[in-house]
Amino acid sequence: MKNMRFLTTFLALCLALLNLVQAQKAPKIGVWRGTFKVANGQEAPFNFELQGKTAYLLNGAERFELKGITQKQDSLFIPVDIYDAVLAAKIINPNTLAGTFKKFNTSKPDKGIKFSAEYGKKYRFFENPEAASVSLHGNWDVTIGEGGNKIVGVFEQFGNKLTGTFLTTTGDYRYFEGTVQGNEFYLSAFSGSSPSLIKGKVSGDNLLAEMINVRGAQAVKGTRNNKATLPDAYTLTSIKEGTTFDFTFPDAFTGKPVSLKDAKYKGKAVVVTILGSWCPNCLDEATFLAPWYKANRKRGVEIIGLAFERKNDPEFAKTRLEILKKRFGIEYDILFAGLADKDYASKALPALSAVLSFPTTILIDKEGKVSKIHTGYTGPATGKYYEEFVKEFNRDIDEVLATETSHTTTKQTEK
Considering the entire predicted model, what is its pTM? Predict the structure, then answer.
């Protein structure tokens, strides 16, 4: 009997010690600084916060939420569901993580991107940077790589702290954050898709830099120009002459065919957005459209999302789009339109001159005619440009809703 009591006590003690060890292995709650291994032996820093079962990726003003953290022994798994990826790390100790960022369902098996992280470090690049001797504040005409496409760099600098993004005709690069030290500047970004690093120098009104990711590096050149602008996003995509914009695609969740001619949309303003669950700018648009639709649907407005996904597979698309729908609380219709490829999308929507970007947003009036087409998306990272887009979007909707249809005019005449 004594031996049995001793064994029971011993096992209870071992279990308590095991739980204590596991508790000690848990990563600390709070702010962390991580670094990804990218091309050319460089490190791209990122900041994040752990709060129980939730993590937040921190970039400028953005806190990108990642739910559903799990721990198995000394391994931590932070799912990035919206991008079909995971941050998987070994808990070296409560202050240190080392692991891999890996994407699923890629065309080739993803080897992952190695990273390490330390608790309690809130800085991005330097804990105690030297004073800045240059300023990037304002707008810049920029080229990245050999493409020669029109790009506008938009930066805010306060002391050493630098934030900003790049605007292009197909969308923006989202939130970058970094540091200016002397005449050198450093920027990085990671919000769940792919890490990026920019390192460069400023000389007068010119900058030279490199944009580095896991695949390689591209040259960045810029000239200060506070009047730098892009072509009007409403002029880049149009309806082919003599054609009518229409489509029929299956509902992404039920498979039921849905057409723009359906009774649900008749006599209403309709916003059609060409999107992909994999597309960062499309996520920014969904962040805006989902609550906007809830607030405005009773005014006689509908939204239809035409989703082009990484696989031309309805079941795969359904899985990815359910995650999108749940994350943003989307209540408007989402249809599965096919493969995430601009040429494929252009053929699927032959009335358009071309599909140049995901997203592309089409406003249709109450008569079923295309009123405006906006190529790309100007997201919240662009500051005043985003605010201007929202104002113009609401103004366009107001104008379309205020227009009488021929059906309404006919009924009034009959009276």
Answer: 0.91
